[in-house]
Specification:
By secondary structure, this protein is an all-alpha fold. It is about 75% helix and about 0% strand.
C-alpha cells in the first residue's frame, strides 16, 4: 500500500473505533439512566397508568400492593431455595452412607467436579458427612 492511501485508511479505522467506543458508552449511559434506574414496581405502575389512566390514589395503592407482593415472593423464594438445598444435601448424605469411606471420598470429589466446591464449604456444620469440604488434590 502506498503512503497516499495509508493515512486515510488509518484515519478511517481510527474513526470507526472511536465511533464504536462512543456508541457503547452512550448506550450504557442511556440504559443506566432509564431501565436500570427504575424499580420493576415503578415500571409496572407507569405501564398500568398509561394503559388504564389510574388516579394518583390508585397508583399509590397499586405500588404498595406490588411492593408487598415482591417482599412476599422474596421470602417464599428464600424458603424454597433452602428446602431445595436441604433435599439435595439429604440425598448426598444417603448416597454417602451406602458407600465405603474411600468411595464416599471419591463420590464427593466427583460431585465437586460437577457442582463446584463453593456450596460444600457453607454446609460444614449443618449436615452429615458429605458436607465436609474436601481439599483439592496436592494441598
Amino acid at each position: 500500500m502506498n503512503n497516499g492511501m495509508a493515512k486515510p485508511l488509518m484515519l478511517l479505522i481510527l474513526g470507526l473505533v472511536i465511533g464504536m467506543a462512543l456508541g457503547a458508552w452512550a448506550m450504557r449511559w442511556y440504559f443506566d439512566r432509564t431501565l436500570l434506574s427504575w424499580s420493576p414496581v415503578d415500571r409496572f405502575v407507569v405501564k398500568l397508568d398509561s394503559d388504564l389512566h389510574l388516579t394518583p390514589d390508585q397508583k399509590e395503592k397499586v405500588a404498595s400492593i406490588l411492593a408487598s407482593q415482591k417482599e412476599s415472593v422474596k421470602g417464599l423464594r428464600k424458603d424454597w431455595e433452602h428446602q431445595v438445598v436441604t433435599v439435595g444435601r439429604g440425598g448426598e448424605d444417603q448416597i454417602a452412607a451406602l458407600l465405603t469411606p474411600a468411595q464416599a471420598d471419591q463420590f464427593m470429589r466427583l460431585h465437586d467436579e460437577i457442582h463446584g466446591r463453593m456450596v460444600r464449604f457453607l454446609w460444614a456444620a449443618d449436615s452429615g458427612p458429605t458436607a465436609l469440604a474436601i481439599a483439592p488434590p496436592g494441598k
